[in-house]
Amino acid sequence: MPVADRPKILFVSKWYPHDRDPINGIFVQKQAEAVAAFTPTAVLHVNSDPSLATGRYREEIQTIQDVLTVIVYYGTRNSGDHFISRIRKLFLYWKASRRGYRMIRQQFGRPDLVHVNILRRPGLLALYLKFTLGIPYLISEHWSGYLPADGSYRGFLIKLATKILIRQADAVITVSTALKKAMQAHGLYNRYFIVPNILETWPVEPFARQQKTPFKLLVITRLYEREKNIAGLIESIARLNRKKDQLFHLHIIGDGEDKGQLVRLAAGKDLLDSQVFFHGLVPNSDIYPFYRSSHVLVVNSHYETFSITAAEALANGMPVIVTDCGGPQDFVKAAYGITIPIGEPQRLDEAIWQMHRNYDQYLESVKEFDATPFSAKAVGEKLLNLYQSVLKNI
After folding, report:
1. Close Cβ partners of 276 (under 8 Å, ≥ 6 residues apart)
2. 289 CB neighbour count, 10 Å cutoff
3. Which of 216, 221, 251, 345 has its CA 20 to 30 A from that of 309?
4. Measuring CA to CA, how many Å separate 56 from each of 16, 17, 38, 390?
5. Whole-structure pTM over 0.90, yes or no?
6. HSE on the CB side for 29, CA within 13 Å?
7. DSSP H helical segments within 37-154, as ranges?
8. How far is CA 294 from the centre of its chain?
């Protein structure tokens, strides 16, 4: 590949795995590693650290899967959350970004293009580099705040900053059609492209699902009720098992701020550790046995920009039940998944029964799911082609 076709790409991301949260933004890390297989790639991530005194910094620099990774932490100890404090934190973030970029220049050189992931703060450095050095940037957005069901995209300054950053970008990438349409509905116009997240797949093995009693439902998610509605699924298990004693088991993988109330709900209905099981956080390397031994993955969310878990379930031979929450509608087809309206408990009950009754049919049909567009190779190539297109047209 000629040098001109191998541009230097700098990812600047709001979310990225770091020492206090090793799974935060792991999907961005996978995309950076996919791009690095084709062209030189570096990552800059800036994060606050409440254990550091305000005004102090610490840096981490390492190469992970051929990706030069620079993480800069800025201290926020005893900084408070009032208006002046928020302004000061923005200033500290900016100083940390400049600090990190200097390290990138020393170790990596000048980037040809900046790939911003998740607005808004990472866009500040990209905008600065565009106006001062003429380096183009594009934006990938994953944030659910633009979706009507979330509604977190609000406030005059937030909207003004977002519109400026979007307008100055050379392209905008979203992970789903639903997110693209939601952003456009807010007047955020640009050239949009859809690039999915990268999926984990494992070697194909015979599935341990010959027995349908108990019928095992799997949930892999952050336990955050406003978005995920796990309580609605626990309630469904309680209703269904009153009709057919302990036919359905629910296995929940994940952690989050609402775990306590969900455990109490399951315990209060005499389901805990008999029909509803909490497994906590499970590393990606240990997830596959749950896919192999469960029958169906359920996404009962109020909103999703993509749903990696639903796509990974399909890619690994497991049918799904999803709500009409946005992201999954790009890839869940009726042959191997059931889509239900949001917030309708009876429809959820019916979908679980339908999946149980017709399981063999769904299990056979899920073999039709094509995981190729979600592979690291396909996503890396798609992003490289987009980078090259942007650089040819500046």
Report:
1. 234, 237, 249, 250, 252, 266
2. 11
3. 345
4. 21, 21, 36, 37
5. yes
6. 17
7. 83-108, 121-133
8. 23
Task: Return all residues near 203 (Cβ < 8 A) that are at least 6 apart.
Answer: none
DSSP SS3 for 384: helix
Q: 389 — alpha (psi -120 to 50), left (phi > 0) or beta?
A: alpha
Whether pLDDT at 4 is above 70 = no
The answer to whether 114 and 136 are in contact (CB under 8 A) is yes
| 112-139 per-position pLDDT tens digit | 999 999 999 999 999 999 999 999 999 9
Q: What is the mean pLDDT of residues 9-14?
A: 98
E strand residue ranges, the chain? 9-13, 41-53, 57-64, 67-77, 113-117, 137-141, 172-174, 192-194, 215-220, 248-253, 276-280, 296-299, 320-323, 337-340
- The answer to whether residues 124 and 94 touch, using CB atoms and an 8 Å cutoff, is yes
Residue 226, SS3?
A: helix
Domains delineated in the chain: 3-198+375-392 (3.40.50.2000), 215-373 (3.40.50.2000)
pLDDT of residue 69: 98
CA 189 → CA 63, 94, 103, 158, 180, distances in Å? 36, 26, 33, 16, 10
Give the C-alpha separation, 222 to 289, whole Å. Answer: 19
Q: Per the structure block, which two tokens stand in for 387?
A: 């980078």
Mind listing the pLDDT tens digit for each residue in 152-194?
999 999 999 999 999 999 999 999 999 999 999 999 999 999 9
Peptide bond preceding 373 in cis form (omega within 30 of 0): no
